[in-house]
Amino acid sequence: MERLVSGLGSDWTPTCVKRVGAPKGGLLTPVRESAGWRIRSAPEFHAFAASAPVWKLWEGDGLGGKGALAVELEHDGQHICALNTHLQSQYSGSSYTEIREAQLIELGKIVAQFHPALPALVAGDFNTDAQEPLYSHILALGTDLTAKARAMNHHGTTANPRDGRPEWIDYVVAANSNGWEISANLELIANQRADYPYSDHSGLFCTLTLTPR
What we know:
- The protein is an alpha+beta fold.
- It has a single domain, classed as Deoxyribonuclease I, Chain A, CATH 3.60.10.10.
- About 20% of the residues lie in helices and about 35% in strands.
- It is built from 5 helices and 15 strands.
- The strands form 5 sheets. Strands 5, 6, 7, 8, 9, 10 and 13 form a 7-stranded mixed sheet that branches. A two-stranded antiparallel ribbon has the order 1-4.
- Helix 3 (about 95-110) packs parallel to helix 4.
- The longest helix has 16 residues, at about 95-110.
- The relative contact order is 0.12.
């Protein structure tokens, strides 16, 4: 977390809920207050009730305490909620379909608690490819802002660890968007290999313009 904050610069404020000094669920939402964004209330971390077995130490997900980090932001009197999440990973021999489905249903319940007039962005690593039946739960959250870029790009955001097949498992979803016109420009930041330049996934750089209807 310190390296990320140092790399972004002093005008970015790290937002998280800590657990023994580290962000819960490994989730961090930096907010650029110098650009006019203000954190309206303390961030909330929602731990998923469904998770992988803790005893599978070689996988790590059961120990990660995964969930969703929600923070409400304000800019020039307009409010928006940002929800950052990371769902259960798939492993060789264990797709964890039931657990990922339960987590997606939990995400839907969290989003449903937001005020319907408050636009919300749900973003993160869903560990669910757009070709999977579970993708319907992602669409149920709102408008998938990555759909257009995905149709134009056949590389995916990562590669399947079992067969190397490209997969698109990272998303930016606009929820509660009925009262807003949303214009989104999404750029895929290609990743070459694990941790080069940043991660084992390609990055999603999404620029949004929200206008009240």
